[in-house]
Amino acid sequence: MKSWTYMATALAFVCSASAAHAAVTKLDITTKQPYGSFEAGDYVRWDGKITGELPPTPGLIPDIEKATRNTRGLVEYSARIILFLPTDAAKANGTLLVDVPNRGKAYANALYNSPHLLPQLSGNTDANTGFLEDHGFAAAEVYWELGQGADLPSFTDPDGKKRFVEGVGFAIVRDAADFLAHAAHDSTGTANPLAGQISRVLASGKSQDGRFLKTFLLNGFNVVDGHRVFDGMHVFVSGAGLLPILRSGTGPGSSADGAPNFADVEFPNVHDGLLTIGDIIAKVESRGEVPPKMLLLNSTTDYFSIRASLGRTGAQGTADLPLPANVRMYDVAGGSHATVPKADDCTLPPSKLDWTPINRATLLRLDQWVARNTAPPPTTLMPLTNATGQADVLQLPKNLPKATIQVPQRDADGNMIGGVRLPDIAAPLGVHAIQNAPLTNFSCSLVGAYRAFDKAKLAALYKDQADYLNHVRVAARAVQAQGFLLPEDAAVIINAAAETPIFSAPAASGPPR
């Protein structure tokens, strides 16, 4: 049975299943170490494992009723967890940020703590700039995926094959977040290190894990015992897709590992369900739930390589559909789905536009929206144009015959029009987010490429170095005023521009760094 058939069935059981008790029963911390000193004081890092139990109730999680049960008649799971905790709760901001690891790799530090023009890869857990810690966030990395840090319940099917109940991954993240936010201790008496300290819970997920969060929400996992689990969600580069783990796979890897791409246009289950956040929120509200506040960010290459336009238009037509009041959507002009130091397998060097500053600014705006109902910047998108049949654009699968694939419009130089415009785009030194070959290499289709302007073009744009720097200052002030850039990041960007002699040295093969 296809995963979205499972999902449709699951929706019918949400109300009854969410009432059934499910919880973390044990928090087992194996190592504790200092993490550093920040504006919010000292932090520690704790590594360990959580264990939990679920009722074998049919419906919400397909096949859970078939899984092996413990002596209490419940189904057990366990998963790796990493906690980054302030030692002085009085200096913390009261927010727990739960990051959903991508294929077993933590992402929060790469998203929020990366230094300027030094992109950190997923899996990096170094403090780096310490942005999250300076602002007093408590953070948790909760591992959920089959073969990537989570031990999922299993059963033997009629053919004698061992199958893993992958939908439990949603329950793991749900239960861990709820435990850390609300529990005093586990069933063995081990204290919750955040007990009494958390007033709001945010979730963060990029790409695969942005799809995780949307699917989590759609299928009723954001409610425990009548209360909401995540008050806000920060969703990055998830396109229009969902995550097919409401199924029982044979392993050893996760059913969520793949996605549609230029080598497999018809890859199933990702674009087979609801495509827009508006449709997802409508389902949530139809069940009587209060949805979380959500910020969804798209990169430019998402439109070319993962069908992001469908997240705006749905499966029919070219018009943007209305967004719910609890959602804002932002397009990063010239941004790539993945920013990496090098891409040896690709024809061109990878694009280097650093849009981590937008991540930082929007996280604080999301936190303020949840905590004080201070509205974030309005939805800011790039205008689109029909890209049907365009060879460098991932085309539609056969199951969406009425949809239209669209991509952002470019200006005369090749850069994107509209969207959130960092100084790299508003005062450009080259063209960003060019499609990178070979497109059948999924990584190359996501990292994009950069082409520097020649000296003649630079001379046509800027009178001299001082004029270029003034353009950067104006652009930085503009995006800061819009709420997408923090003052400290604006200062770093302006200083970097001042140190980039665009006329006295040959144009670089990538953006200045």
Structure at a glance:
With 513 residues, the protein is an alpha/beta fold. The protein has helices at residues 3-11, 14-19, 108-112, 131-134, 168-182, 208-218, 277-286, 300-305, 310-313, 356-372, 423-426, 442-447, 455-461, 465-482, 487-498, and strands spanning 23-38, 41-54, 75-86, 95-99, 138-142, 145-146, 149-151, 154-156, 162-165, 200-206, 223-224, 227-228, 232-236, 248-249, 293-299, 327-332, 384-386, 406-408, 430-434, 449-452. Helices cover 26% and strands 21% of the residues.
Key terms for this structure?
globular; alpha/beta; eleven-stranded mixed beta sheet
Percent helix: 25-40%
Radius of gyration: 23 Å
Quickly count the domains: 2
Distance between the termini: 50 Å
Low-pLDDT stretches are 1-20, 506-513
Strand fraction equals 15-25%
Give the integer mean of the pLDDT values: 93
| Largest sheet: number of strands, sense, barrel closure | 11 strands, mixed
Secondary-structure-derived class: alpha/beta
Looking at the structure, what is the overall shape? globular
What's the total count of β strands? 20
Discrete helix count: 15
Provide structural commentary.
By secondary structure, this protein is an alpha/beta fold. It folds into two domains: 1-257, no CATH class; 300-314 and 329-513, no CATH class. It is built from 15 helices and 20 strands. The strands form five sheets. Strands 1, 2, 3, 4, 5, 6, 7, 10, 13, 15 and 16 form an eleven-stranded mixed sheet that branches. A hairpin with a 2-residue loop joins β1 (23-38) and β2 (41-54). The protein is globular. It starts with a helix and ends in a 15-residue tail after the last helix. 51% of the residues are buried. Mean pLDDT is 93; it is low at 1-20 and 506-513.
